[in-house]
Amino acid sequence: MLTSQKVKEFAKTAGADIIGVASIDRFEDAPVEMHPCSIFPETKSVVVLGCRLLKGSFRGIKEGTEWSSYWIYGYGAGIYGALNDATFRTRRFIESFGWDAVEVPGKATLSEIGPERPPVAPGKLPPDVTISMRLAAAAAGLGELGHSKVFLTPEFGPRQRFAIILTDAELEPDPIYEGKLCDDCMRCVARCPARAIGKEKTISVEIEGRTFSWADLDYGKCKLTHWGFNKEASPFMAKDLPGLKMDIADQTMTWREAFDFGWTLSKEVEYISLVAKGISEVEQPGRPGTICGARGCIQACAEHFEKKRK
Fold it and tell me: Which of 88, 138, 150, 209 sees the fewest Cβ atoms within 10 Å?
């Protein structure tokens, strides 16, 4: 008989650092384009696995000496290699008991990026349906969303990435996390070079009586900075395109517009192009890397936790 405990024990031997389970009823208020049953209609349980981001991944950006480590080890094979392996092995473990185990694509949700392609047929959703990793982690009892919307856990603060497995096995859910990690210190707001994080918490979701709240984000400013086109965050655009005057604070691009703009401009910035070629050559040639280093949303938050010995 498959149990939550068996799944958790196996997932940790497979390489996951943390794991939680949510029952499907915790997603009853989710919009249809973010609902697990829009991907796998027979879903009974949502299993969320996490792997921690290592501190050393941020070291080069913090010291201003090397910008690619966060992209390689914070987004690329350095963390997702381990997370994908743990997820595949855990899916295989679940299916060995006769249940189905469906992985959720790890990408931004439709509310953030908009549809990339039209529906395949009238009355259908666009083929970009996915689930919010952070809200799924909250539903699985792993922690809470911080002011910046970055997910916080008692084990690793803001430093982890998640993967999601949907299964028709009815597993015992974990209790919703009742602790309080974010103390609204506002370091994420002050340290974000994109000025993309609002000061007030204006968005909230309730799951089994607990309200999770976070600030509204400017996804366009975040994406431009994320990919290295903010002169406050990295030196490469100023070096290769010194005549381009682009104040990120003045930009009103959507996430999709910033994504497309960055993809095009990356070819003109040598270091960003080099990182993109090295990391994404097979799957998405020319895609910019993660150059910002998450200075506000992850680094400043983690430093605050460490100073408080939290």
Answer: 209
- The H-or-E segment that residue 274 falls in is helix 270-280
- What pTM was estimated for this model as a whole? 0.92
CB atoms within 10 A of CB 163: 26
Instruction: Calculate ∠ Cα 178-180-181, nearest 5°.
Output: 130
Sheet holding 18-23, edge to edge: 18-23, 45-52, 160-167, 101-103
Contact at 8 Å (CB) between 22 and 45? yes
Say how many Å lie between the first and final Cα of the chain, rounded: 38
Beta bridge pairs of residue 19? 49
Q: Is 89 helix (H, G, I), strand (E, B) or coil?
A: helix
Could you read off the pLDDT of 123-166 as tens digits, one per residue? 888 877 889 999 999 999 999 999 999 999 999 999 999 999 99
**Which residue type sits at 244?**
L
State the number of CA atoms in the 13 A half-sphere of 29 facing the CB.
Answer: 10
